[in-house]
Design brief:
Layout (H helix, E strand, L loop, with lengths): L29 H7 L8 H10 L5 H25 L1 E5 L14 E5 L13 E5 L7 E8 L4 E5 L2 E4 L2 E2 L16 E4 L4 E5 L17 E2 L3 E11 L4 E6 L2
Antiparallel strand pairs: 1-2, 2-11, 3-4, 3-11, 4-9, 5-6, 5-8, 6-7, 9-10, 11-12
């Protein structure tokens, strides 16, 4: 429950055998003696015809079919991987500056919280509580049971000042103290660019349920500011 009633409005929309058989006959017979005397063995025409008929010619269409099979398999694997393992996301706004810049492209890991809980400081991709058709990227500030207070332009969690060296700039002091008690199974989110972030402070549905957290952001692979591929771990 927030004591901050006069909330400013922000518009942040972020938020793919053949086997050779070997004659291992160790016995000695007439055939072996012929081979030992270096006498050539002539195969019959029937034997040659049998060998030739067993070799199927590779046609153009069989070659095409093999490539199609490979392509289909790659598409299926890519679909499963992106659907159940990773998230590929582009951030359209600057609400997470300077950790994540406008148009940066990120990879999130969907299985991060399969056997563990989100931790304070994690950057996550989740369903926006006020409109689940949209996905947002924010930092976890409050975990279940935490008391989050915002006063004097700073954030306190359970009475302790939160050290935040990742902030883009100091948060504006509105002169109003805000207090939030995070319910069990929910999380309180804020952007690193506090003065330009539509986050838990301003949402109608203040908190994000754990089952609405899609993935934990792992790394950035594209630098939107410099418009080039750039790999960097996000934390």
């Amino acid at each position: 429950m927030s004591s901050y009633d006069n909330k400013p409005t922000y518009t942040d929309e972020d938020d793919e055998l053949e086997f050779d058989f070997i004659n291992d006959d160790y016995g000695f017979d007439e055939y072996d003696s012929i081979l030992d005397n270096d006498t050539p063995v002539n195969s019959s025409p029937d034997d040659n015809n049998t060998k030739n008929s067993s070799q199927k010619p590779v046609t153009f269409w069989s070659e095409v079919l093999s490539y199609v099979k490979i392509l289909v398999a790659a598409v299926i694997i890519a679909f499963i991987f992106s659907r159940y393992v990773i998230v590929n996301a582009e951030v359209p706004t600057g609400s997470m500056k300077s950790t994540i810049m406008e148009h940066d492209k990120l990879i999130g890991f969907r299985l991060s919280y399969l056997f563990s809980e989100p931790k304070r400081g994690d950057i996550v991709i989740f369903k926006y509580p006020d409109n689940e058709a949209q996905n947002y990227v924010k930092r976890v500030i409050g975990t279940p049971g935490d008391v989050v207070q915002i006063k004097g332009g700073q954030v306190y969690v359970n009475g302790d000042l939160l050290e935040e060296d990742y902030l883009y700039e100091p948060m504006q002091n509105t002169g109003i103290e805000e207090t939030y008690v995070v319910p069990e199974g929910y999380y309180f989110m804020m952007g690193d660019n506090r003065n330009s972030s539509l986050d838990s402070r301003y949402w109608k549905n203040t908190y994000v349920a754990k089952n609405k957290i899609i993935a934990k952001v792992i790394f950035k692979y594209y630098d939107g500011y410099n418009e080039k591929f750039s790999f960097r771990k996000i934390q």
